[in-house]
């Protein structure tokens, strides 16, 4: 059975001439428009539009279908308006991509205060950049810049990648080894300890080790946990080492629950960027989310 929303989407594409225009007029995502059109074309059994660049040109069959549904659909929309319970302003939905730890540490506490709908997505940075470019995401928080000409990257903060340990780690012993400047001994000392890592991205550990010792680590962490915040909670137990961004463990270091062991032979710092499309209908909402991040980062 055909879905009435497919017809509504078809009409919007026909009248605006683009998938983006239809998405804007219907207040849905562009992938949602594509899904509706694909479902309708599969249902009727033929193409309804020819795709020429960014323009959607109706086929002859598409024109026939539009003429058949346009007036009945308009009447249904008028009925819908007459029976609406309210005329409240449409509430926009903003989709934001970032890593799980960043969300927990920054935006999570403000979600209940937002006067617009919010969808948070977690994923790898290349995937999030691609989804931003395609219109699936409206804003991303990333330490990596993409190459798409449609995306703006705005630096707003930085993070330093540091080596931390549980409160029972013998940091004085490590400092004595560190004073020798013998990096084979320093590396040997570190490898004797228990290490924590995450199930996903190990890039922080790889980069830190490469800058300090000139090669990637030749060992695997002893304990693999879901995310970086899990690592910090585990280290509060008193033992173990891990390489993490400094903003995630600032409070724990200040309280003595974990120790800052080493900043590395060369400091490893990442710039954090807001990534958003140059053209957006949600500039006000995106700017509000940016202000919340700046507020949190300024506390550091």
Distinctive features:
300 residues; alpha/beta; 7-stranded mixed beta sheet; elongated; LysR family transcriptional regulator; transcription
| Number of helical stretches of at least 4 residues | 12
Low-confidence stretches: none
Strand content: 15-25%
Helix percent band: 40-55%
Helix and strand succession? HHHEEHEHEHEEHHEHEHEHEEH
Annotation, overall tally of beta strands: 11
Shape: elongated
Largest sheet: 7 strands, mixed
Derived from helix and strand composition plus strand pairing, the structural class reads alpha/beta
The whole-angstrom Rg is: 26 Å
Mean pLDDT: 88
Distance between the termini: 56 Å
Secondary structure: elements and pairs:
Blueprint: H1 4-16, H2 19-26, H3 30-44, E1 49-52, E2 55-58, H4 60-82, E3 93-97, H5 100-105, E4 117-121, H6 125-134, E5 139-142, E6 151-166, H7 171-179, H8 183-191, E7 196-198, H9 203-213, E8 223-225, H10 228-235, E9 241-245, H11 250-255, E10 258-262, E11 268-277, H12 283-298
Parallel strand pairs: 3-4, 3-5, 7-8
Antiparallel strand pairs: 1-2, 5-11, 6-9, 6-10, 6-11
Helix pairs in contact: 1-2, 1-3, 1-4, 2-3
Describe the model.
The chain has 300 residues and is an alpha/beta fold. The protein contains twelve helices and eleven strands. The strands form three sheets. Strands 3, 4, 5, 6, 9, 10 and 11 form a seven-stranded mixed sheet that branches. Strands 1-2 form a two-stranded antiparallel ribbon. A two-stranded parallel ribbon has the order 7-8. A hairpin with a 2-residue loop joins β1 and β2. α1 packs across α4. The termini are far apart. The model has no long low-confidence stretch (mean pLDDT 88).
């Amino acid at each position: 059975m055909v879905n009435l929303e497919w017809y509504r989407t078809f009409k919007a594409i026909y009248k605006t001439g683009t998938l983006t225009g239809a998405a804007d007029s219907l207040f849905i995502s562009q992938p949602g428009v594509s899904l509706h059109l694909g479902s309708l074309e599969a249902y009727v059994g033929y193409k309804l539009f020819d795709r020429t660049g960014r323009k959607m040109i109706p086929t002859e069959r598409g024109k026939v279908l539009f003429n058949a549904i346009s007036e009945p659909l308009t009447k249904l929309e008028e009925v819908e308006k007459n029976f609406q319970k309210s005329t409240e302003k449409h509430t926009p939905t903003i989709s934001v991509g970032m890593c799980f730890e960043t969300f927990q540490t920054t935006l999570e506490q403000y979600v209940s205060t937002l006067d617009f709908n919010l969808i948070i997505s977690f994923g790898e940075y290349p995937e999030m950049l691609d989804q931003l470019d395609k219109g699936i995401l409206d804003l991303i928080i990333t330490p990596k810049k993409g190459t798409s000409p449609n995306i703006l990257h705005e630096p707003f903060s930085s993070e330093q990648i540091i080596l931390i340990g549980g409160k029972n780690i013998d940091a004085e012993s490590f400092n004595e080894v560190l004073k020798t400047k013998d990096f084979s001994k320093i590396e040997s000392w570190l490898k004797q300890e228990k290490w924590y890592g995450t199930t996903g991205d190990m890039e922080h550990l790889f980069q830190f080790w490469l800058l300090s010792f000139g090669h990637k680590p030749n060992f695997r962490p002893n304990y693999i946990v879901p995310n970086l915040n899990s690592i910090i909670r585990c280290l509060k137990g008193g033992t173990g080492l891990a390489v993490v961004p400094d903003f995630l463990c600032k409070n724990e270091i200040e309280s003595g629950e974990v120790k800052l062991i080493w900043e590395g032979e060369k400091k490893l710092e990442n710039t954090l960027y807001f990534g958003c499309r140059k053209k957006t209908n949600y500039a006000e909402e995106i700017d509000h989310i940016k202000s919340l991040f700046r507020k949190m980062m300024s506390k550091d």
